[in-house]
Amino acid sequence: MSKHLNDWTRKEFEALPHRENWHDEVECDCIVILPMKDCHDSGYRNLDFVAVSKGVPICRLAGGSDVVHLDGIGGLGHHWLERFGCCPRTKEPVGWSIDCLKKSGLLSIFGPRTIIAGNALSSFEVFAKIGDKNE
After folding, report:
1. Using CA atoms, how far apart are residues 73 and 81, in angstroms rounded to an integer?
2. Is the separation of the CB atoms in 92 and 111 below 8 Å?
3. pLDDT, tens only, 38-77
């Protein structure tokens, strides 16, 4: 049986491999924020993110981002233009949550839906999966 996410150390998170292709989207249940030591061109510290599925960390996602956008830049959700055809006036709420892992002290982002982790770009976007409620 694998150990609980709360028992992982920062070094164990850092030892995980990055996803195979930076442009592939990754589905997961939770994302752990992994602050890096180097700085982005913006002057803010770079962030990496660890995808977690069913309580098991599976891979690192970014490494060169200085910000994370929940439900994408502007908060309009995944593929919002294809879904709405324009900028929507209203959008179904997601209910994002953040907690702090016991051993590593790292922050974890999760919600009531599957998370889609976007491309590994300067601004890292995560989305709630459309039509997926893990209730």
Report:
1. 12
2. no
3. 888 888 888 999 999 999 999 999 878 888 888 876 666 6
Cα angle 104, 64, 119; round to 5: 100
DSSP-derived secondary structure for 67-100: EEEETSTTS--TTHHHHHSS--S-------EEEE
Give yes or no for a contact between 77 and 127, defined as CB atoms under 8 angstroms apart: yes
Sign of CA dihedral 102, 97, 111, 76: negative
| 39's tokens | 């700085």
Please compute the mean of the pLDDT values over residues 84-99 and round it to a whole number: 74
Name beta bridge partners: 27.
116
